[in-house]
Design brief:
15% strand, alpha/beta, 255 residues, TIM Barrel, 42% helix
Length: 255
């Protein structure tokens, strides 16, 4: 039976009170008897802003939390940064390598590799984001880009630790644009990612690879039904309880 992770990346959105209201409503709807019995096959993850992590950390036993970012040092004079040590008792996941972090904040492959390592050392589950730009896709460099990001991100990480990681394929050209990769396009890249990770780790473990990029209730089931797509990392549609819950309901149809 297929299992899914349905994850929400709120980015720089939602006040503390808005976060509390959102989690409370989703938790209440998840406790519906028809849904609750299937939740063992679906993990719901929220990546809230840092200000909301603690206030919502004990509101729902049905929802996991993640940190949108962590710094690659344990502590020190790094104004404005958050360490894995600060969040590890409150969250399960750390989101690493998102295209906005790579582009806007100039995070390098070395930075991303260091963040993965410190997350693993702190017993967090890193969720590594990878994806090509529109120019890279149009010039036929999608697989070269994906391979480079994976090889750099997983450098010097033991196979057993790679097995603790989650991966998210987010084509940069589909994030926040309303344009979504077709299910076949997404599956093709997910299949490549699976084979590439297995080659790096030198094993054939089952990989959890999410798709992200303008995921909506209307297109989610077609994406999630593909063989190597194990869930979704959702941006804009995760800010609204109705659309986010609708995607959860769609995934329930497949378990």
């Amino acid at each position: 039976m297929k299992k899914f992770i349905i994850a929400a990346n709120w980015k720089m959105n939602k006040t503390v009170q808005e976060s509390i209201s959102f989690i409370s409503k989703i938790d209440s709807e998840l406790k519906d008897s028809d849904i609750y019995s299937k939740l063992e096959n679906i993990e719901i993850v929220i990546f809230p802003p840092f200000t909301s992590i603690y206030p919502i950390s004990n509101l729902s036993k049905l929802i996991s939390l993640g940190s949108q970012n962590i710094y690659f040092e344990e502590s020190g004079a790094f104004t404005g940064e958050i360490s894995a040590e600060m969040v590890k008792d409150l969250v399960k996941y750390s989101l690493i390598g998102h295209s906005e972090r790579r582009k806007i904040f100039r995070e390098t492959d070395k930075d991303i590799n260091s963040k993965i390592k410190i997350s693993l050392n702190s017993n967090l589950y890193p969720m590594l984001c990878i994806g090509e730009t529109l120019n890279e896709r149009e010039s036929g460099k999608t697989f070269d880009c994906i391979k480079g990001q994976l090889r750099s991100g997983l450098q010097d990480i033991p196979p057993e630790d790679i097995g603790r990681m989650v991966f998210a394929y987010e084509p940069v050209w589909a994030i926040g644009t309303g344009i979504t990769a077709t299910p076949d396009q997404a599956q093709e890249v997910h299949d490549f990612i699976t084979r590439e990770i297995n080659d790096i780790a030198q094993n054939t473990e089952k990989r959890t690879i999410l798709y992200g990029g303008s995921v909506k209730p209307e297109n989610s089931i077609d994406l999630l039904s593909k063989k190597d797509i194990n869930g979704a990392l959702i941006g804009g549609a995760s800010l609204n309880t109705e659309s986010f819950f609708a995607i959860i309901q769609k995934s329930l149809e497949l378990v």
